[in-house]
Amino acid sequence: MMSDAAGLDSSATTVLGPLSFRATSIRSANVDALLRQAVFVILLTRSACDPIFGLAGRGTTMGFGALVNFLVIAIALLYVVRRPSTAPFAVFAMWAPYLIVAFGATLYAPKFTDAVRLALVILSYWAMFVLPLFMFRSPADLRRFVLLIFASSVIPSGYAVWNILTAGSFADDFRLESTFSHPNIFAFYLVLLLGLGLFVMASPPGRWPRRERYLIALYMPVLILFLAFTKTRGAWAAGGLMFLFYALWLDRRFLIAFIALPLLLVTPTPISDRLSDLGNGASIESLKELNANTQLNSAAWREALWRSAVPSIIEEPVLGHGLQSFRALTTEFFPLAGPDGIDAHNLYLQFIFEMGIVGFAAYLWLLGSLTRWIQEGLRYDPNAIAVALTILAAYVFESFADNMIYYLAFNWYFMFALGTIGAWIEYHKRGAHARPRRYVGG
Q1: Rounded Cα distance, 318 and 360, in Å
Q2: CB neighbour list of residue 350: distance below 8 Å, 6 or more residues apart
Q3: At residue 318, what are phi and psi to the nearest 5 degrees?
Q4: Side-chain half-sphere of 91: how many Cα atoms within 13 Å?
Q5: Is 13 helix (H, G, I), strand (E, B) or coil?
Q6: 375 in any annotated domain
Q7: Largest CA distance in the chain
Q8: Between 366 and 50, where is the model more confident?
Q9: Residue 139 within a domain
């Protein structure tokens, strides 16, 4: 009897073991598919959600947008718990110092709640960056994820056309913001799309179907038109530098556009008027000289703000004044600040002010690590990866004169794009695809 029972147990194990493993695999695959679809929906719609989240968040302690932020973080953490070895350790190592310093800086911030909120926003940027590493299955996902980012622009583009058509006379104060909360955010989002368009154009033809390449090529002039109407000078410069690199590296026919640039600047247009504003404004020795007739231009105003912040930076050079402290403390050191304070309009100055040299070094470590990581892809596709590096360079450039840390929707797409390119590089490094290509310049 004992032997019969043992035999039955052995038979049951033999039969049920594979079935149990198969059931577990099916459940795991279903969970992965659900998480993947959730990320797709968020990316497809987030670009159009700022007006909705703004309405839903009024009068509440936590808006619907904050719940979506928590969802993104939760999905990334769930991926990490379920498949901790999928993403390379280097990815966590490059982000860890920045995240640790940011969360640590909340402990001595003047407004703890605001600081924690910003720290969680930064954590959501990390989440968007690592998600492609867990979701990437095959080289086809590079095309799939990039097209998803382009698909996210359909609603903003349609709304932008409506904005332009209903703006009437394009006065100096008209700036296109589409579905985003500020024209600058829309502008940087457009620069990212244009960079990805150049990335597609620089990729080998076999990676992208001809129809998709043509559609993206036709879409790019529309994006450039939208970018012009945002009147965001930093985005213009960043986008122009990307196209200049592409022209010099890959296709010198693009230089024709730069030949026409001087004519565009001297002809009275919204673009030339916006650029001429940089030369307006008086030269003053002290902010006390300002009055109704004596004003600072945008560049001079930023310079005055940054100079005013230097003594406060010297007071706390190592750890800074705490996360989200710049706006709160500007009322103490900058006479032109309103009662609610103003933002730094310089990401690097803000980090030095709020997190000190330690925070600035942690952020430089992140940027340097990202650059080195992407550079490893040059051996697999030198032209496309070189363009990808210009997308990162554009972000670094834009951060010198804008509040990039607060532009959540744009940062999500930017980080997901970099993570996608990094996931593609990791796929090649694992030896799952063809041998590296030789380095070829344009």
Answers
A1: 10
A2: 326, 343, 344, 403, 405
A3: -85, -55
A4: 25
A5: helix
A6: yes
A7: 105
A8: 366
A9: yes
Give the span between the Cα atoms of 349 and 326, in whole angstroms: 9
Q: Look up residue 415 and give its two tokens.
A: 């980080």
Domain residues for the domain of 87 are: 30-280+296-429
Residue 178 lies in a domain: yes
CB atoms within 10 A of CB 5: 9
Model pLDDT for residues 183-206, shown as the tens digit of each residue? 999 999 999 999 999 999 999 987
Distance, C-alpha 289 to centroid of its chain: 39
Interatomic CA distance for residues 22 and 13, integer angstroms: 14
Say how many domains are in the chain.
1
Q: Using alpha carbons only, what angle is made at residue 21 by residues 18 and 23, rounded to the nearest 5 degrees?
A: 110
Q: At what angle do helices 382-398 and 183-202 cross, to 10 degrees?
A: 170
Please give the structure tokens belonging to residue 220.
Answer: 């790019």
Q: Give residue-wise pLDDT tens across range 198-254.
A: 999 999 987 899 999 999 999 999 999 999 999 898 999 999 999 999 999 988 887
At how many degrees (to 10) do helices 140-151 and 2-45 cross? Answer: 40
pTM of the predicted model, to two decimals?
0.88
The verdict on residue 209 lying in a domain is yes
List the structure tokens of 417. Answer: 């794009």
